[in-house]
Amino acid sequence: MPRGNGTATKAAKGSGPRKAGPPEPTLAPGAKRRFQQRLLKWYREHGRDLPWRRTTDPYKILVSEVMLQQTQVDRVIPKYHEFLERYPTFKDLANAPPDEVRRTWYPLGYNIRPHRLHSIACEAVAKYGGTLPKGQKELLSLKGIGRYTAGAIRSFAFNENAPILDTNVMRVLYRVFITHGEPSKLKRRLWNLSESLIPKGKCYDFNQALMDFGATVCTARDPYCLLCPMKDFCKTYPFDGTSKA
């Protein structure tokens, strides 16, 4: 953030002095590099072998991301294969009747998701010839794609240095680097932190590692702190159950 030039500015009439919010999370010297290196090393040794990690097809990445919303990985894997076998491309999905798509989606639940996925497919075919754009602005213009999904598509399909912030990533970053305040009120800062930590050219593995680490080590309850490679600089270690994330 640029520093002021020393010139005083007048507050807007009636606004009064602004209250200073909590300080932006800052990284201790070397913490950023240690976190990157240790996380990537952990991922090389312990990362999960998942079917959507064997492709960079934007359509398949999108299908996996939508399915994984509020649904456990083990339940998603068989349905992911079945869904792609039936609708292998955006065009196939767009041409399918919405009710058929919803039935194919069963029993994953949250039936607004197949509706949104079908809507995205129709828009992708109409606007982009049956694929997805690379740019964040264009991705966010598609109804049903939010900031997290756009970041996942950009990093996993297009290898762009795009940050992500889902529940698992938020929990890891909050615990390791922040620990104060309500995580839900710190999303802008957590997004900035997620982006600042991306190692240049290694966004794909780094983002996958963040999600895996939150899902399997830095879990919501009973995290495996003794096995955590970040414990010597994690601000929540040792975990006592009072963390807000």
Describe the fold and architecture:
By secondary structure, the chain is mainly α. The protein has two domains: 31-47 and 163-227, Endonuclease Iii, domain 2 (Orthogonal Bundle), CATH 1.10.1670; 57-156, Hypothetical protein, domain 2 (Endonuclease III, domain 1), CATH 1.10.340.30. Helix content is 50%, strand content 0%. The protein has eleven helices and no strands. The protein has helices spanning 31-46, 58-67, 73-86, 90-95, 98-105, 112-128, 136-140, 147-156, 167-178, 187-197, 203-216. Helix 1 packs across helix 11, helix 9 (167-178) crosses helix 10 (187-197) and helix 9 (167-178) crosses helix 11 (203-216). The longest helix has 17 residues, at 112-128. The radius of gyration is 20 Å and the shape is elongated. The two termini are 27 Å apart. Mean pLDDT is 90; it is low at 1-21.
Short précis:
It contains eleven helices and no strands. It is mostly helical.
